[in-house]
Amino acid sequence: MIDQMFLQIAKLEGRGVPTRVAIALFLLYNVFILTIAITSIRSVFGARKPHDGTIKEPPIAPYSVPFLGNLYAFASNTKSCLSSLRSKFGIEIPVRLRIGNRKIVAISGPESMQSLFRSSKDLTTAPSVIMVLENSFAVPKSIRALYERDNTGLFGTPIAGSNPIPQKDRYWYIGHKIFHCGLQGQALEGLASRFMENLEEGLKELDIGEDWVPMDDLYELVRQAVFKASTTSLFGPHLFRLNPDLGKIFWEFDDNIVNLFKGVPRWLIPKSYRVRDQFVQAIRKWHDYAEGNINLEEDSSVPWEEYYGAKVMRDRARELSAIDGMSAEGLAGEDAGMLWAANANIIPAIGWCILDTLMRPSLFAQVKAEIQKSLSDDNKLDRNALMNSPLIQSLWSEELRLRGSVAIQRTPITPMFKIGKWAIPKGALILGSSWHEQHEKSVWNEGPTVRDPNHHPVDELWPERFLVYPDDHLSGPRKSETRNENSTTPSSNDDLKDVEPKFTSQPVNGSFIPFGGGQRACPGRFYAKYEAIGGMALFLNMFDVELENNRTEDVKMNWKYFAFGVVPPLGKFPGRIRRRKG
């Protein structure tokens, strides 16, 4: 072995490498080899499932670089890194990752995800939320204490043993309460109606007549129209009036958010920070104007007014500003985050619904028929009829399944959190990937069915994936082997045509998780559904569109946004457009 060492050093010296450098390189190489060998052995033994009721730590993912661990693989291509873990360890086995000095445990499989969601009281999202607010939305680090001191939970009664802080300073409870009240029930109905009114008005104002006109990019047209309608519905008209270039600013910020989120230093990405500061300053300008024109303590029951927009935004302004330690800069960052969360996911989702429908003639005919059935005598869309359409619901869910990529993050607040027979230490970051769960071949139905002889891979759009036919035991979102197969098979094609399907996502609970789950599921998920289905129907009912390229295989996703929500389409979608007559 010693002889081999000197031989390798001599070879390096023969190539002109100085002796000291050659020795250092040889030693470094052997450190890497030794590290990968040790971590691989530990990984193999650690991956053996616990037995006899014992609880053990998850296995580690092998790595070769001490101290850095899996940092490069995880940071450079998170999607590939998580796919590799599933391939190596299988699903339902959590895996420990070393990302520098951070402890991350990647979990997978529907049972693990549901276990995570059922244990919300033992988990927190605070560390992840604080990091996003500070890195991406410029919330000052000086107010971090108000987030960290609140360990009282999400509900009215504080968690036993938590810090004794005043009710008005319970940040996490306040946010949960405001969203629960402001994005459900009558408030949701009012917000959805206002969005549809704003979008219809905005689409009517477009310079598009009944004759065909060229269109540079359909997605960009949809993106700007929906952004203005959605933002005005939530924030009121003055945010746009005070910042006429808000659409440009927002999407430029969105284009830079990935590096901001990662905490890349300002001197390396000065443009990203400049755009972020411009975006947050636009919110600050709106705050100053709204505060000067309305008393937050008056008319608190009004569902919408022009200065703060929807009641949910006014309630946020009133209650967050009253928290001890909150600042104007913090409030601006909070609402910048709110604006991004309200648009950055739903708009790509609406865009995909429209694009995928237009590129598939048979689907387009089906969707148009559903829209036609929902129209009243005065050509108005019945939103509830659309929301209850099995096909439209299935299409919406399939877009979320295929295009959605959410990083589900939780941190245990109990000494030893358990998922199955695996123990995860307090303070570790638990990470789940909605994209991987929603593309798991062992779970999802890929066909064929009694009605449809075709194969539908999980990485392709199948608009009917979430439809269950009572006479087709092979239908539905989950693989047939795991479903009840006692239903009868239709005896003829006539039988097949007359049976109405039902929409369901229940068989894939824990695998279909576009909005997370548990007590911390995305509070805007119901509003997002209204926006997506209503927005798609309104656009397709008002315009005829022909795309230059209808080849679905040419459509790409912008994987830069992996783990940031719905992954948007990549590139432009040119064609021509005209307003429908009548």
Automatic annotation (TrEMBL):
Residues 473-505 are annotated as: Disordered. It comes from Amylocarpus encephaloides. Its cofactor is heme. Heme binds at residue 522. Belongs to the cytochrome P450 family. This is Cytochrome P450. The keyword Oxidoreductase applies. Residues 473-484 have a biased composition (Basic and acidic residues). Keywords: Heme, Iron, Membrane, Metal-binding, Monooxygenase, Oxidoreductase, Transmembrane, Transmembrane helix. The chain crosses the membrane at residues 21-41. It holds the Pfam family p450. One of its GO terms (molecular function) is heme binding. Gene3D superfamilies: Cytochrome P450. The keyword Signal does not apply.
